[in-house]
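ok trying again, last paste got cut off:
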Amino acid sequence: MEEETYYSVRMRASRNAPHEQGGKHISGGERLITYSGIQEAVNGLLHKGFSHSRGTPDFMQIQLESVNEPIKTIRPLPITVHQTDTAEKGQAIARTLLQKAGIPPRMIEKAYQSIAEYGEARGAVLFDIRTGKRIDGRRERGVRVSRVDWPAHDFQKWAFEHNMPENSRIKEAHAIAAKVCAHPGIIAEVCWSDDPDYITGYVAAKKLGYQRITKMKNDGDECGCRIFFSDGITDTQSCIHFLEKQPVFIQREGNI
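nice, full thing came through this time. structure:
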């Protein structure tokens, strides 16, 4: 990386109260950017927060921090798309993929049985595949994957090569999945959005890449899910620190 200061610009938006006071989560987002790109990044995050299908926020926080640690470069995951016309079929595909990634079937079932409980978390749930228990200890907060971005020029090339739309939702989801899967203690991730008008989700794993599933819930459903399946061996706190604090760029090839 060049010796230039990067900044983490993060946004969170909610309605009726801040998140920690029980407000309804509306939107969130982040950019890793140099000084010259801060204004554009803030404007983009403002637009995202105020144009969300979950509603109009009455609380928004935008936070800027300088990034002093070296930024790690991670390659994007290989991508596969599964077309399906019902949420039931989509969830069946997800379960099959999780099993292929190395998650024991009984642990997949145990995680799915707790999804209603996990739905209270604003971030992801860290799930131990040895004990079948949630191990992050974050309650409503969950684990928020942060300090990750995919430079626009590189993402555009990737999208063209893979015949994917150049939209920010795919960019953000794939960037997060790539960072999560880069940690040696994470076996797989399953995710679908809490946005009522976005029904696509994915399973991601080192062994499988990014497996996009076109329908994992029904239209209008505001219940989302994000579970990280841990091997149960890696130190939990070091894993969470990597996911939340390690600066990461997604990059196809070469230098940023």
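cool. The two ends are 7 Å apart (CA to CA). The chain has a mean pLDDT of 93.
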